[in-house]
Please model this.
Amino acid sequence: MKENQNTEWKQTWRDEYLKWICGFANAQGGTLVIGKNDKGLVTGIADAGRLMEEIPNKMRDILGIVAPVNLYSENGKEWLEIVVEPYPSPISYKGEYHYRSGSTKQELKGAALDKFLLQKRGKRWDSVPVPGFRVSDCSSVAFKLFKTKAAKSGRISEDVLQDDNNSLLENLQLRDGSYLKQ
Model:
């Protein structure tokens, strides 16, 4: 078996590998193997017993997740397998969001992070409320033009031309309580 989008091999444990576990949890899930080299050959680990206790506790305390940590022995050398399921909610490592893409771990930032967080919450950018943005901030000319063109194309009834702007936004489901959506 080779390293791939769902498998990562490391010869020794470092706490920074919690980022890889975070990445698996935020993507399709995966397996982090400690005690194998990049060719998949068992190199073994020292103090497997300590790691069997330390790694689950760190995953719980830092990532807020629980994943099986399995101990194996091959030719007298011990190695660990950490099996990470995909999580439906976003998992962060000390405020950073990591994601497994191909055989790499990526830290999500900017637009990629925004998209990821919205997807994990089952939302799209156009359904997100915009605080501080009011109907009065919108152009009345734009509302009138929209109503006219939409009625002319047959997408809305001619009756809508008489609706006030608040009613139009409500009927188009462009409100979330007192907020307008993007």
Summary: The chain is about 30% helix and 20% strand. The beta strands are 7-10, 30-34, 69-74, 77-84, 97-101, 104-108, 129-130, 175-176, 179-181. The chain has a mean pLDDT of 89. The chain has two domains: 7-123, 127-181.
